[in-house]
């Protein structure tokens, strides 16, 4: 009986040890770049860069609109948690999202896209982004990120230049990911934004 108890205790401790290793072995692949220190320090309101798609939705095989809906909802909820208010009149900042994808040969034509953009999930969702990158250090075009990289951009509404970018490298493994999974990825990015200024 004592040997059985010792064996059971040993197995339990081993299982506990290995489960803690798995839980803590994740690598945080979330990064941000910003045009300057404190550039977002006086912001409290936002709007989407393109409130509605400007082109027809054309999802490739294995992609659909559910991810798009989850991303919009998650970004809005996480910005609200940081104290930002969505508005349609004179926003302090504009927000856009993207997810990098492998580019099919037929779509690998730079003339189809604005500078710094390429074939991506947002492109399939009908968005045609054309804001500048303000020569941010560490900036790279969307199509140069690893497939599945989720990107959240903050853009100046007047200059149409990128103020801040956050991304999680290769995070979207499944393009029909659940809302819960998408929200956890968005959380990792948005939590790096400064908290909104309260009026």
TrEMBL record:
UniProt signal peptide: 1-23
InterPro entries assigned: DUF4136
Gene3D superfamilies, per database record: 3.30.160.670
Positions of the DUF4136 domain: 40-194
UniProtKB keywords: Signal
Domain of life: Bacteria
Name this protein carries in UniProt: DUF4136 domain-containing protein
Taxonomic source organism: Pontibacter lucknowensis
Lineage: Bacteria, Pseudomonadati, Bacteroidota, Cytophagia, Cytophagales
């Amino acid at each position: 009986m004592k040997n059985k108890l010792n064996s059971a205790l040993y197995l339990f401790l081993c299982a506990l040890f290995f489960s803690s290793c798995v839980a803590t072995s994740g690598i945080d692949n979330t990064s941000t770049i910003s045009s300057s220190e404190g550039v977002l320090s006086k912001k409290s309101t936002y709007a989407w860069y393109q409130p509605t798609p400007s082109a027809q939705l054309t999802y490739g095989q294995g992609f659909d609109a559910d991810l798009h809906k989850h991303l919009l909802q998650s970004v809005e909820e996480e910005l609200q948690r940081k104290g930002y208010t969505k508005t349609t009149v004179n926003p302090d900042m504009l927000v856009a999202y993207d997810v990098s994808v492998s580019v099919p040969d037929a779509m690998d034509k730079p003339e189809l896209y604005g500078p710094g953009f390429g074939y991506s999930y947002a492109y399939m969702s009908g968005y045609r982004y054309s804001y500048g990158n303000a020569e941010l250090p560490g900036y790279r075009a969307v199509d140069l990120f690893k497939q599945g990289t989720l990107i959240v951009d903050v853009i100046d509404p007047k200059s149409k230049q990128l103020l801040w970018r956050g991304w999680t490298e290769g995070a979207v493994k499944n393009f029909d990911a659940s809302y819960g999974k998408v929200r956890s990825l968005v959380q990792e990015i948005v939590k790096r934004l400064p908290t909104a200024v309260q009026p």
